[in-house]
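Marked as duplicate of an earlier ticket. Keeping the data here for the record.
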Amino acid sequence: MTLPAMAHDSANAYLRTKVLTAPPEQVRLMLLDGAIRFANQGREAMGRKDFEGVYLGVSQCRAIVFELLTSIGPDAEPSLAQRVRSLYTYMYSRLLEASTERSTPKMDEVIELLTFERQTWAMFLEKLAGERAGGAGKAAELSLSA
């Protein structure tokens, strides 16, 4: 095995371990990061008229958006889940249009939506971490006072 192949394999193993051990909310953030990265790759390939690069970037982004779409559970808040599903469905259709029409404005729109979604999700994770830390602190106080 060549050195670059070994480095690629170890990077894949690291990523696989990171994904398999991360909590679901962190995996969602990783998926959003990947979708943005692949969308940007597709967008850049459009500018170079590299149609294979467009296909690869947009296809990977579409696969991630589809995964995000299908992983939304309506358990806690059905109306919110439906709105988020509608957003991902819209992004998916815009990706299809952007790819077939070679439309950079449509790709830019999807990238903007994904970036906003990622920022929103990151803020949610920060709030969740704060609540968990606050809850752990309160639990420790209760156990000390008992």
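See parent ticket for discussion. The CA atoms of residues 10 and 16 lie 10 Å apart.
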